[in-house]
Design goal:
The chain is an all-alpha fold and 266 residues long. The protein has 2 domains: 60-133, no CATH class; 139-265, Lysozyme (Orthogonal Bundle). The protein has 10 helices and 3 strands; from the N terminus they run H-H-H-H-H-H-E-E-E-H-H-H-H. It is globular, with a radius of gyration of 25 Å. Residues 1-56 have low confidence and may be disordered.
């Protein structure tokens, strides 16, 4: 079905990421010296410096697992709240010709919250658009974006503002000013009272803003096929989340594949 969303596009978010590489240790020098003085017990003396850790260590896995463990229950709770609303919309849709006044008021409040203030219970297209918006975001996708956007929870915005998704705001004093904000730009990085508020705001953005219409279309298509929407598939609809475009999508998909076990072990 044709998407009926019509909101303006959201500004994209630009970020730099850094990668650290490790140079292999040069072990041959101490080995030669030790061999030369073997009679005085050099070979039996333990080295005071531990060997360099490999690129993927158990400590890194533990830190990732702890990150996912902190966020996963919050994501599940928000998805449960959205799912409860969705199930009620589906139930009311089946009986739309006999809606009670209280049900109509609830629908209008929900539709307004989902940026559909002109929702009309008599229009099937409005019902379908609302159902496209009131739906869950795959947990793996939320966790991957949180890890990417917050540098695994270490970014200034995550630590000081509970902002794990790089969300902007446009009212002076609403958040934190980026250090490298372009001259003349007025946006700030939003500050949230809690991680729960950050997750709820992020998921609401994906479910309502025009920039993510493609994500909602992919999710609706999976539902129509009787399939559960998958994180890697829906990531294709986030091309406008970052100025990196398709490269950003590929990064998210790789993070999902590489960390899937840790996400669920948490």
């Amino acid at each position: 079905m044709r998407d009926t969303d019509g909101e303006p596009q959201l500004g994209t978010i630009w970020k730099k990421t850094e990668r650290q590489t490790m140079k292999p240790a040069m072990r041959f020098i101490p080995i030669l010296i030790c061999a030369s003085f073997l009679p005085i017990g050099c070979a039996t003396k333990p080295s005071p410096v531990p060997a360099p850790a490999p690129a993927t260590t158990s400590s890194q896995a533990i830190k990732k697992q702890q990150f996912f463990a902190r966020l996963r229950p919050i994501v599940l709770a928000e998805n449960a709240r959205i799912s409860k609303d969705r199930q009620r919309v589906l139930r009311l849709h089946r009986h739309k010709a006999w809606l009670a006044g209280a049900d109509k008021r609830w629908l209008m409040e929900l539709a307004t919250r989902y940026r559909m203030p002109a929702f009309d219970v008599r229009k099937e297209t409005d019902w379908q658009t609302l159902l496209r918006r009131v739906d869950e975001i795959p947990v793996e996708l939320v966790l991957a974006q949180a890890a990417n956007e917050s540098a695994w929870g270490t970014s200034r915005f995550a630590r000081l503002g509970n902002n794990y998704f790089g969300q902007w705001c446009y009212r002076k004093g609403c958040g934190m000013v980026p250090k490298h904000r372009a001259p003349g730009a007025t946006h700030e990085v939003a500050r949230f009272d809690s991680v729960e508020a950050s997750v709820a705001s992020y998921m609401h953005n994906l479910n309502t803003l025009g920039a993510y219409r493609a994500l909602r279309r992919l999710r609706a298509q999976a539902r129509a096929r009787g399939q559960r929407p998958q994180a890697e598939q829906l990531a294709e609809g986030l091309v406008h989340y970052s100025a990196r475009g398709k490269a950003y999508v590929r990064t998210l998909q790789a993070m999902i594949r590489q960390n899937r076990r840790l996400m669920h072990d948490s």
